[in-house]
Design goal:
By secondary structure, the protein is α/β, with parallel strands linked by helices. The chain is about 30% helix and about 25% strand. It contains 9 helices and 12 strands.
């Protein structure tokens, strides 16, 4: 299929290199500081500016999914170019992107827009989006493409490390925000989450940052698909870079991409975080209905 365009939203971990090379399009989420300061991520405000705002003011922003109208306008512009849409969202358990995209899809002919729930958080969704973009040229139909993605989704592992140290005042968040994206802690069944101290020396990091993570046992069991892993960091550039290096050196991943993202800001405990995702060779979870 050559006429399918893959989309996600800007909460997804995706390096610029892959977005450009694979033609992946990204719809911005909304970042809200206070009741009147509403920004489109990466259009009105960049990720590093959001980090700086949190550090300087000690206040966490609210983050909201794109609206139904946002999705409608985006999908319409693509369909008018004689292309079909595949939108892959972060888990519907924490983000309204899936629901809003599904509602927008109802305005178009059957088959023009396909919406898929990754069941994952930021880096896991990114890996699913990359898998989709790579698989589009090889798939003979949308049905065949979705079968590939369903199989990959079953074998996706995602791990998230959250800093123990609280840096921001959660009371500053905008709790009444429509379409609010909520904490990844709700996904504990789907992703492995650990709380660790990020205030460590480089030597201590080797012991603590990846200790007790699932990647150890998956590697020991020979289950890792080592072609690619995506690493995300929120306000933890050094720890993200360290994790990237260790995943390549210790576990043999061929391609390791590191990106800054907003994921850690959703934890509502401490914004600094590192996450990473990879595929394994065996079925990890039964498919959902």
């Amino acid at each position: 299929m050559k006429n399918v365009r893959v989309f996600t939203d800007s909460m997804t971990t995706l390096p610029e290199e892959l977005k450009k090379r694979l033609g992946i399009r990204v719809i911005p989420v909304y970042v809200v500081f206070g009741n009147n300061n509403i920004y489109k991520h990466n259009e009105d405000i960049k990720t590093e500016d959001i980090y700086r705002h949190v550090l300087e003011r000690g206040v966490m922003p609210g983050i909201a999914a794109p609206s139904v109208n946002d999705f409608y306008d985006l999908f319409k512009s693509v369909i008018e170019q004689q292309e079909k849409v595949l939108f892959i969202s972060m888990s519907a358990e924490i983000s309204k992107s899936y629901k809003n995209a599904m509602q927008a899809a109802l305005f178009f002919s059957n088959g023009d827009v396909t919406v898929m729930d990754s069941y994952a958080f930021s880096s896991g969704t990114g890996l699913m989006v990359v898998k989709a973009a790579v698989s589009v040229p090889k798939a003979g139909s949308m049905k065949a493409l979705l079968q590939v993605l369903n199989n990959s989704r079953k074998n996706l592992n995602e791990e998230l490390i959250l800093d123990k140290i609280k840096l921001a005042n959660t009371a500053g968040e905008v709790y009444g925000l429509n379409n609010r994206i909520i904490s990844p802690l709700k996904l504990k069944r789907q992703i492995q989450i650990r709380f660790k101290s990020f205030n460590l020396s480089q030597t201590d990091q080797d012991i603590c940052i990846l200790k007790d993570m699932q990647v150890h046992s998956s590697s020991a069991a020979g289950e890792l698909q080592r072609e690619m892993t995506l690493v995300s960091q929120t306000m933890a550039a050094d720890h993200g870079e360290y994790t990237k290096i260790k995943l390549k050196e210790r576990y043999g991943f061929k391609q390791v991409y590191l990106s800054s993202c907003l994921a850690g800001l959703l934890s509502r405990r401490a914004p600094r975080s590192v996450g990473f995702s990879y595929f394994v060779n065996q079925k990890k979870l039964p498919e959902r209905a």
